[in-house]
Write a structure and sequence with these properties.
35% of the residues lie in helices and 22% in strands. The longest helix has 21 residues.
Length: 324
């Protein structure tokens, strides 16, 4: 596939929050650019807003945005399976499709989730919600170093909507380095009425034990090295953002991290298109580099994100989608 003459083409793999927010920021910075989105689903699911749906602030269906409505982005519906180079341009291929090449390739494929609970998709979130409604006690059990994000906000949302239910979070396998976070997290959660501790009690009738799945690097990104400042990989003009990138940088795969990376990567790509060199600035989602962002994210992880803040982000998200 050839790009429009004299217009930079940016191919984005993955229509989750990292991919969508990257596209939004890029189009703000570069008016004349061709954007191609490679995504196997026909919709974007605003996974960060799932706790709002559990808390009753929005309907689950309101978190679904059809990609066919996008006007400034070309959507190619297939799953990316491999990377390649065609005439010195980075490309992506599907199992039977491709190559799709660009001047820049931004990978935001998410991560592989290991576990039976699937609350980051519409059907999975609805299924878990139905179980929550019928349970008297809900316990989120975290037993890995890189759990799928959102369980803390889910616990808070459930307790807010169903104050009569007992809600708890149990971290049963984590590094001792996590202790200082656990103490602060437990203190803040107690104010809301959610218990945070290590070992959960044995299951009893009427309880729902939610084993929080683990996140692992997506196969598409498995062999890539990623720079902690711009998120460009060891392949020139190929960037990696989102869950897989965060895991590679030893950061938790959470939505705030994806937004931070999308912002920085969009600045990097836009500045190279417009100026011929990479330039990034500190953004409102966090710091310039991995270490400063880790400090900011520690605060987010220990205090949780109030539903009212998620509602503000959701309202912003609707405007972002509308402008695409």
């Amino acid at each position: 596939m050839q790009s429009t003459l004299n217009v930079a083409r940016v191919v984005v793999v993955g229509g989750g929050i990292a991919g969508v927010y990257f596209i939004s920021r890029l189009l703000e910075l570069v008016k004349d650019v061709e954007v191609v989105l490679v995504e196997p689903e026909d919709h974007h699911f605003f996974v960060v807003g799932v706790p709002m749906a559990f808390g009753g602030l929005v309907d689950f269906q309101e978190l679904v945005f059809p990609l066919a409505a996008l006007r400034r982005v070309r959507h190619l519906k297939f799953g990316a399976a491999a990377l390649s180079q065609e005439k010195d341009r980075p490309c992506v291929r599907g199992a039977r499709e491709g190559p799709v090449c660009g001047d820049y390739l931004v990978l935001a494929p998410g991560a592989v989730k290991l576990g039976s609970v699937n609350y980051w998709t519409l059907n999975g979130a609805l299924e878990l919600y139905r179980k929550v409604v019928s349970a008297k006690v809900i316990r989120f059990i975290v037993s890995v170093f890189t759990p799928v994000g959102g369980f803390q906000e889910l616990a808070y949302a459930i307790k807010s909507r169903f104050p009569e239910k007992e809600v708890s979070v149990h971290v049963v396998y984590a590094s001792p380095d996590y202790d200082f976070l656990l103490d602060v997290q437990a203190s803040k959660a107690r104010e809301i009425g959610v218990e945070v501790s290590r070992d959960p009690p044995e299951w009893r009738q009427g309880e729902l034990h939610v084993s929080v799945p683990a996140a692992r690097v997506h196969p598409l990104a498995a062999n890539l090295e990623v720079a902690p400042t711009t998120f460009e990989t060891d392949i020139e003009r190929v960037y990696l953002i989102g869950d897989s990138s965060l895991i590679k940088l030893d950061l938790p795969p959470v939505g705030w991290g994806a937004l931070w990376q999308a912002t920085i990567a969009a600045q990097a790509v836009a500045s190279e298109i417009l100026k011929g060199y990479v330039e990034v600035e500190v953004d409102h989602w966090g710091g310039r580099d991995k270490d400063s962002f880790r400090n900011w994210l520690t605060y987010r992880m220990t205090t949780g994100t109030p539903l009212v803040h998620l509602r503000g982000l959701y309202d912003l998200w609707k405007r972002i989608i509308k402008n695409l």
